[in-house]
Amino acid sequence: MSFIEVIEYEMAEGRLKEVYEEILQKRGAIAEVHKIQSLNPESIIHHMELYLGIMFGKSPLRRYQREMVAVIVSVNNQCEYCQVHHGTALNHFWKDEQKVQQLRDDYTKVTLSEVDLLLCDLAKNLTLHPGQADEAALEPLKKAGLEDRAILDATLVIAYFNFVNRIVMGLGVRLENHQGEGFKYD
Predict the structure, then answer these.
(1) In sequence order, which ranges of the chain are alpha helices (DSSP H)?
(2) Which of 88, 141, 153, 182 yields a CA-CA distance of 20 to 30 A from 28?
């Protein structure tokens, strides 16, 4: 049970009902992270616009890379909800549940490309030590061939999931019975 009041889909009226219907159309299901904002329907709209832009918008980062970064941020924040949701999304691309679980357990022991490993390092370091960020930390990414736009997009994913992890954990969002299944990933 969450720490604050939540209006379920069946009880929604007016603007909230419209917002829930739009989420169902775009994402295929309504996540608890959306319902936790049900007392402020406009925040759900803004949240979804940000999420869809960062995670599904045009980017030099591939979709699996954004999901992988989301998992690493969530692991480092100990946000089980987002680990499960975005681990499921990542598995949609990797099609290897064991590899996803290994990523959650210790990404340094997973066979990843140099760029993917560096993205995971960035996600971990920026999540755990944001005050230590400096230009030198980005040099390995640039040397590995990532352009500034890709680095920006990775940083946006990292910042977004630090934001969402705090909503989830701070308001007691619980994992759905469907364990993050049933959403549109492409």
Answers:
(1) 14-27, 32-35, 41-56, 63-76, 80-94, 97-106, 114-128, 139-143, 148-170
(2) 153
Q: Residue 168's CB: how many other CB atoms inside 10 A? A: 25
pTM for this predicted structure: 0.94
Compute the residue count for the chain. Answer: 186
Which CATH code, of 3.10.290.10, 3.10.410.10, 1.20.1290.10, 1.10.3720.10, is assigned to 63-170?
1.20.1290.10
Asked if 65 and 117 count as a contact pair (C-beta separation under 8 A), the reply is no
Alpha-carbon gap, residue 93 to 104, rounded angstroms = 16
pLDDT (tens place) for every residue of the chain, 186 residues total: 899 999 999 999 999 999 999 999 988 889 999 999 999 999 999 999 999 999 999 999 999 999 999 999 999 999 999 999 999 999 999 999 999 999 999 999 999 999 999 999 999 999 999 999 999 999 999 999 999 999 999 999 999 999 999 999 999 999 987 665 666 566
The encoded tokens of residue 93 equal: 């691309």
